[in-house]
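Sequence in, structure out.
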Amino acid sequence: MRGWVSPRDFWDMAPGEVWWVIEAHEPRQPLGGAESMGELYRMLKENQAKERVGKEVRDGA
């Protein structure tokens, strides 16, 4: 935690606050690329198709 907060501030922190500081300094995960966006789109379309079929069955179509 060297350089993130002063020693005095560190000892005054609650345990949860220490974790907030640590998490704030972790490397960020890169956002999903085209592959993950394609996977999300595919899952969305599959779910929409299942909902459409379920609605047709419930409505007696």
